Amino acid sequence: MGSVDYSRRIYEILRLRTFPVGVKLLEVDPDESEIPGFRPLRDFRRRMTFCQAAALARYYGMPILLGIDDLSCPGAMVVFGLVEAPEYFLDGSISAGLYAPDKETGKKIDHKIPMLPPGKFRGFALYPAIKEVEEPDVVLVYLTPGQLTKLAAAISYSTGEPLVIESIGKAGSCGGVAKAYSTGRPVGILPGLGDRTLAWTMEDEMAAAIPASILGDIASALEKQQEQGVLTYPPRPFLFYEFKFKNIPVIGVHYDRFLKEVKAMREDEGKVE
What we know:
The protein is of the alpha+beta class and 273 residues long. The chain has 11 helices and 6 strands. It folds into 2 domains: 3-227, no CATH class; 242-273, no CATH class. Strands 2-3-1-4-6-5 form a 6-stranded antiparallel β-sheet. Helix 1 (3-13) runs parallel beside helix 10 (215-227) and helix 7 crosses helix 10 (215-227). It is elongated, with a radius of gyration of 25 Å. It starts with a helix and ends in a 5-residue tail after the last helix.
């Protein structure tokens, strides 16, 4: 099986609202790539952010290829190494006053953003991972906290490691993809303000970036846990208990009296020990 089959299994078991997004980092210009897809500047007459392209792939099933001329987001250009970060991207200037009270704190924050080495990649493709487009490097999934809980359990099952979520409120999806690519480990993502405001990531959505190399192990873990009937999504309610009606406000005292009267009647009839 390939990543398409594994992505489909993850999509179905987790009952994801939108398609998993395959992310392929390109070492050649997207014009030289054989991957079919839309180019934002050429086809839509506008530039886009990374998270907008991911939204088109997951909501509409559209394959999107972005080079540096297609990108409107300076952060994504730097995170994926399409250009080298200028000094004012690293000295705290772009965080001071918004994400940090001063440049010193901002510098600490900005140095925590995952960044791929400049010069290696010239663009990337984003597309629904459940379709035969291209073998991805990373698969990006958007999901609810409940779905992420099940995914985290499957990741721990297959790797023996916890799913770690780190967030500074920005560079959520692109930073998560960059980190998953560079470390080879799944990354939990709290989508940033760009995701929320530009790409219509819902308030109740989180995300995860999964290296394609371990997609099969995670899909298998999801299936094995699903078969046990405990770690399911949606969660199955536990129903083997006796509800105490006397705890209901107002009518509880009357229900409790009624049940006691029924029990006494049955005892009189010799049918209750």
